[in-house]
Specification:
By secondary structure, this protein is an alpha/beta fold. The chain has helices at residues 49-56, 84-90, 102-105, 112-123, 128-141, 147-150, 160-172, 190-207, 218-224, 242-247, 252-259, 328-365; strands at residues 6-16, 22-33, 38-42, 65-74, 77-78, 95-98, 178-182, 210-214, 227-232, 235-241, 309-311, 314-319.
Length: 366
């Protein structure tokens, strides 16, 4: 295996609450990124994807946040051990980030050109004239029409898609080794989403830039990522090459995510299944596997957290799950539990409806 560009090892990022508790937003995360590799972080909202990205950039506000353990090794340096002055040289220079909402990430009082040039002057030590010229070139590269005129425009004069292109230009200004894209197509229409993703992919390929893509869209993952890291409740529950993960998911949560996505290449046989319940309260997470309360495959052993271990004969495919969900016996067990839960829900709904009707009849008699 080639040397990793980035290694996140047992990372723990917690947030203290006013009541004295700690929200374990990232709780022992492990994954790595090779030079030039595209890695996707996927999972429901609140699973720790964005906090993991902000931790890599050292942008978690302290307090209330705290780095409670682990390490982030980037080019043989532990980013959590670096003084802030050294971290500023890496942040925006060798590691760049495209944030989720460009309107709140761009400075409304500065022109687009100045915001791009600022990073160039800090990280590449370019003169004001050279930085302006480079900013213009970057705007053209990311597809801003009439770049020579728009370079002196303000963020509010751009559409959502154009602002996101500006964010990409800022992120790429210093030729970073690693690009983190935190849901870069949120709130954009489908056509613009495709353009933005195609632009990011093309630029990463051209410059050999590694990519960490945070997204909810598994269709995007299938088309862009080399490897997928599935997160749940602040932990990594499965990791595998993209094709392998889609063809052979081995964690019940991953299976649930894939089962809830409609397939356009297959005839629809039944209604889409959802993942019942809600993610756990990270102030008081359940004992053992955090997915256990929502999992049909759960057994008594699941009250103990399973390790993230590779599958037999597949060192690149790791899962944190005790049952083997590919076993027909385990699948039959899960299906029985699913049907029993459905019957229980129907009975509860029927009982509630009867109670409401009884109250209505009593009200009518009065």
């Amino acid at each position: 295996m080639a040397e990793y560009l980035l290694e996140v090892q047992d990372l723990k990022t917690y947030f203290r609450t006013k009541g004295g508790g700690r929200v374990r937003a990232v709780d022992g995360v492990n994954f790595a990124v090779l030079p030039g590799e595209k890695v996707a972080l996927v999972g429901e909202s609140g699973c720790g994807k964005s906090v993991t990205a902000l931790s890599i950039m050292r942008l978690v506000a302290q307090p209330p946040g705290e780095y409670a353990g682990g390490s982030i090794i980037f080019e043989d340096q532990d980013l959590l051990e670096l003084p802030e002055r050294e971290m500023r040289k890496i942040r925006g220079g060798r590691i760049a980030m495209i944030f989720q909402d460009p309107m709140t990430s761009l400075n409304p009082t500065m022109t687009i050109g100045k915001q791009i040039a600022e990073g160039l002057q800090i990280h590449l030590k370019l003169s004001e004239r050279e930085a302006h010229k480079r900013a213009l070139s970057l705007l053209e590269q990311v597809g801003i029409p009439a770049a020579a005129e728009r370079v002196n425009s303000y963020p509010h004069q751009f559409s959502g898609g154009m602002r996101q292109r500006v964010m990409i230009a800022i992120a790429l200004a210093s030729n970073p080794k690693l690009l983190i894209a935190d849901e870069p197509t949120t709130a954009l229409d489908v056509t613009v989403q495709a353009q933005i993703l195609e632009l990011i992919s093309a630029i990463c390929k051209e410059f050999g830039t590694a990519l960490i893509l945070i997204t909810h869209d598994l269709g995007v993952v299938a088309g862009m990522a080399d490897r997928v890291v599935v997160m749940y409740a602040g932990k990594v529950v499965e990791e595998a090459p993209t094709d392998e993960l889609f063809a052979n998911p081995r964690h019940p949560y991953t299976l649930g995510l894939l089962s809830s996505v409609p397939r356009v290449d297959e005839k629809r046989q039944a209604e889409l299944r959802t993942i019942e319940g809600a993610p756990p309260n990270l102030l008081h997470p359940p004992a053992g596997c955090p997915f256990r309360p929502r999992c049909y495959f759960a057994r008594a052993i699941c009250h103990t957290m399973p390790p993230l271990d590779p599958l037999a004969g597949r060192p690149l495919h790791r899962k944190a799950c005790w049952p083997d969900i590919s076993d027909p016996k385990e699948q039959a067990y899960a299906e029985r539990r699913r049907l029993a839960r459905i019957e229980g829900q129907k009975a509860a709904i029927s009982e509630a409806a009867s109670g409401i009707r009884s109250l209505e009849l009593e009200g009518e008699r009065k």
